[in-house]
Design a protein that fits this description.
Blueprint: E1 16-17, H1 23-32, H2 38-48, H3 63-72, E2 73-74, E3 79-85, E4 91-96, E5 102-110, E6 113-117, E7 121-123, E8 138-141, H4 144-158, E9 170-173, H5 183-194, E10 206-210, H6 214-223, E11 227-231, H7 237-243, H8 252-265, E12 271-277, H9 285-295, E13 302-307, H10 321-333, E14 338-340, H11 365-374
Parallel strand pairs: 1-2, 6-9, 9-10, 10-11, 11-12, 12-13, 13-14
Antiparallel strand pairs: 3-4, 4-5, 5-6, 7-8
Helix pairs in contact: 1-2, 4-5, 6-8, 9-10
The structure holds S-adenosyl-L-homocysteine.
Length: 381
């Protein structure tokens, strides 16, 4: 085991954080400390079903082993710095990381399900123009413990004590960060979300959302069975490159080809294309026509329309109600399965694209942006 590969959420200790391991990693760890691997499964159940972080409460683990575990490892979820409840039941946690950084996690309750929106990085390097996280620059990847720890903290808060009666039925990697850019840690955390001894969620209930890192979409499909969402936002390359600069590297044709390979390898699965509607930017009938044409290449897939959520300093506006309705009607009448995402938790800035956290920018991008804005330079790409 390579301890240096894990960033601990408790920097003051050299002990190993058990939240950094998936089931196999935990078995290997127990073997390494001279214990039977099945002990890993016993402990895993305590951690993820009973939400325990104290070895002393693990009653079927002998006293000697509990003492040994206390010496070499710990169970360390991120610490809650702040939590806020919105009027509609949406809940947001600000979780403290190292060096004054913090990320956000959001719980969205609905009548038949509860969705947790999880962050994968402190900040984001992709610089999507309409995203508040993007405007803050990038600090670092979250460790596996910091990713799965978000689910653990939320489950514990929501009183998810009986594993059968869970409040979190779905997890979406749609918080801060680009999950595919933190591939290893995100995959390990998603394995724990899926594992019966972890949170036990079905593949269709764990969704990774990407801005379109093409080679890693293929790698993901080879590695783990989860659902895929792709942030599209424009169906022509000029506009998409302006909104999502990553499109320059992986243009729409390559992205769609990767999506076709994903669907071909996973029969009966569909991909959700997210399309954030911005007034006068990507919400016109011609944009809908371009999108319809593109979606013909992926007939089993669906479109999720997200009305733009504003944040301080943005140059974009939410599309008007009529434009949103017309856009959806145009897609639906062409036979494209289209959902309109209701905005939730906007009174606590918990809506899509509003997650800001606290990011010490190591890329210095936010400072550059501020400078350019001060100089009156439009920062379109
Ligand atoms: N990096 C990943 C996941 C994070 S963003 C991705 O790009 O998919 C999750 C979703 O919120 C994406 O579809 C993103 O485009 C959308 N989003 C970002 N900013 C938004 C905003 N201000 N209003 C509405 N949706 C936004």
């Amino acid at each position: 085991m390579n301890q240096a590969a894990f960033t601990s959420s408790d920097q003051t200790t050299s002990k190993v954080n058990l939240l950094d391991f998936d089931r196999q990693g935990l078995r290997d760890f127990f073997t390494q400390i001279g214990e039977k691997p099945y002990r890993a499964e016993q402990v895993m159940k305590w951690i993820y079903h009973d939400l325990q972080d104290d070895f002393e409460n693990m009653t079927d683990v002998g006293k000697a082993l509990r003492a040994k575990l206390n010496e070499v490892c710990y169970i360390g979820a991120p610490k809650t710095v702040l939590d806020k409840a919105a009027n509609d039941g949406t809940h947001k946690w600000l979780l403290g990381m190292d060096q004054g950084n913090a990320v956000e996690t959001v719980y969205i309750p609905e009548p038949t399900r509860g969705t947790l929106c999880v962050s994968s990085q402190i900040g984001c390097a992709l610089n999507c123009q309409f995203c508040s996280t993007g405007a803050q620059g990038f600090n670092r990847n979250l460790s596996t413990a910091e990713i799965i720890g978000q689910v653990w903290v939320a489950a514990k808060y929501l009183g998810n004590v009986t594993h059968q009666n869970r409040r979190i039925t779905n997890v979406v990697m749609m918080g801060m960060g680009e999950p595919l850019a933190n591939f290893e840690n995100v995959v390990r955390a998603m394995k724990l979300m899926r594992d019966d001894l972890g949170f036990g969620l079905a593949a269709k209930r764990v969704t990774l959302s990407t801005a379109g890192m093409v080679p890693l979409i293929d790698q993901l499909s080879d590695t783990i069975d989860v659902s895929l969402a792709v942030s599209l936002h424009a169906a022509n390359d000029d506009l998409r490159t302006e909104l999502v600069p990553l499109n320059k590297r992986y243009p729409i044709a390559e992205l769609i080809a990767a999506c076709q390979r994903w669907v071909a390898r996973k029969p009966r699965t569909s991909i959700t294309f997210e399309y954030t509607l911005m007034k006068g930017v990507n919400d016109q009938p011609e944009h809908a026509r371009q999108l319809i044409k593109l979606m013909r290449k992926l007939p089993t897939c669906k479109v999720n329309l997200i009305p733009f959520n504003p944040f301080p300093g943005t140059r974009f506006e939410r599309s008007g109600a009529d434009a949103i309705r017309d856009f959806q009607t145009q897609l639906l009448s062409a036979g494209v399965l289209t959902m309109l995402r209701r905005t939730r938790g906007d009174d606590i800035d918990a809506a899509c694209g509003q997650l800001a956290g606290q990011v010490t920018d190591r890329t210095r991008r936010s400072a550059d942006l501020r400078k350019r804005q001060d100089e009156g330079v439009q920062h379109a790409v």
